[in-house]
Amino acid sequence: MTPSPATDPQKEIFEAAFRTLRPRTPVPQFEVRFRPYADINNVIRVRDGKVAVGLSDQLEGAPRGVLEAIATILLAKLYRKPIPKHHENRYRQFLQRRSVRRQADSIRRLRGRKWIGTPQGTHFHLEEIFDALNAQYFHGLLGRPLLSWSRLVSRRILGHFDAAHNAIIISRVFDQPETPRFLVEYILYHEMLHLKHPVSHRHGRRCFHSAQFREEEHRFPHFLEAKRLLERL
């Protein structure tokens, strides 16, 4: 798919934002294009004396004020300037619109690449553990998502729930003979709570762990012991 060149108004928006941020510097040549990214990503870099900007094609048709906010944010990051709070808030509020979130999730499912392996590990089977946890803590009401051990042994991302692909991935670092079963159960239980309690949006910010989420997380019998083991990890 060939990226579509942005129209003159987009270039004018970036030129105006540049003049505001760097009033004493000659305005460089801007090359602004909408690109079919998997997510609402925006990229800016200096190339051969030009400022090349890649905007997510999901932003085509966005209000001018939103594009002005994006231009200011990208240029501020490029030239290491403070990001004006009102521009940051305007862009965040746009991204949190229900229609924008729905479109982004749909595009991500279509374009995004998601590696998903097998739930069968060397020592633990994630589907078997999921079904047991589902029956014990969720009355068997959670639909089973795709379950997989991670491709790599990660100590940074221990587990995550990907709503766009309806998948839970658990780090292979736990698929070891010395790992207590309750630790694997806790990691999977935590991600199952994300499945039950989706990300909410409050006061312009995303909330991943609501009060109800935290309350249910503490109900796990080995919660404190599992947290202590994770801190060592």
The main sheet comes to: 4 strands, mixed
Global morphology: elongated
Domain module count: 2
Number of distinct beta strands: 9
Query: Given the helix and strand composition, which structural class is it?
Result: alpha/beta
Kindly report the CATH topology of the largest domain: Zincin-like
Radius of gyration: 22 Å
Number of helices: 8
Task: Bin the helical content.
Answer: 40-55%
Q: How much of the residues is beta strand, in percent?
A: 15-25%
Task: Describe the protein in words.
Helix 2 packs across helix 3 (85-95) and helix 5 crosses helix 6. This protein is of the alpha/beta class and 233 residues long. Helices cover 42% and strands 17% of the residues. It contains 8 helices and 9 strands. The two termini are 44 Å apart. A hairpin with a 4-residue loop joins strand 6 (159-162) and strand 7. It is elongated and about 65 Å long. Strands 1-2-4-3 form a 4-stranded mixed beta sheet, with helices on one face. It has a 3-stranded mixed beta sheet with strand order 5-7-6, with helices on one face. It folds into 2 domains: 4-111, 2-Layer Sandwich (Zincin-like), CATH 3.30.2010; 126-232, Metalloproteases ("zincins"), catalytic domain (Zincin-like). The protein has helices spanning 8-21, 64-78, 85-95, 98-111, 126-137, 181-196, 211-217, 223-232, and strands at residues 4-5, 29-35, 42-47, 50-56, 146-149, 159-162, 167-170, 200-202, 205-207. The relative contact order is 0.09.
